Amino acid sequence: MNIIRYKPFNNLLSWNVDGILDSFFDDDFFSTAGKYPRVDVKEEDAHYVLEADLPGMTEKDLDVKVEGNLLTLSSAKTEEKKEKKNGYIVQERRSTAFSRSFVLPKNVDREKIVAKFKNGLLTMTLPKVPEAEPKKIEVKPE
Length: 142
What we know:
This protein is mostly beta strands. The chain has two domains: 7-36, no CATH class; 37-127, Immunoglobulin-like. 6% of the residues lie in helices and 44% in strands. The protein has one helix and seven strands, in the order αβββββββ. It has one helix at 17-24, and strands spanning 39-43, 47-53, 62-67, 70-85, 88-103, 114-118, 121-127. The longest helix has 8 residues, at 17-24.
């Protein structure tokens, strides 16, 4: 005997209302894939590491800047292709753009951020400011 999920709205005007509602709450519905690059951020002892997947791009296509406590990755790229074959003229344009911002923690040394790009992967190292160690002050008799 098989257990079948009961879907009372399947026959209502041939709409799958249940499926529409389910897809609304899926991860893919709100996914930024294709609109924004996927970014991983991890914290290590002395720094943070940010990795952004940017396939098909080069370091010249990227604009990385820090303004105050905001780190912004952005790109605007336009490709144009012209082709003539058998009397037809084909002209295609493709434009891609994104901008993604991150609020930096207060302990990031903004002057020492390093960005490297290799094989479609942007790796940024955001060093932490060394924490001030408490200083013991010796009290001397007068």
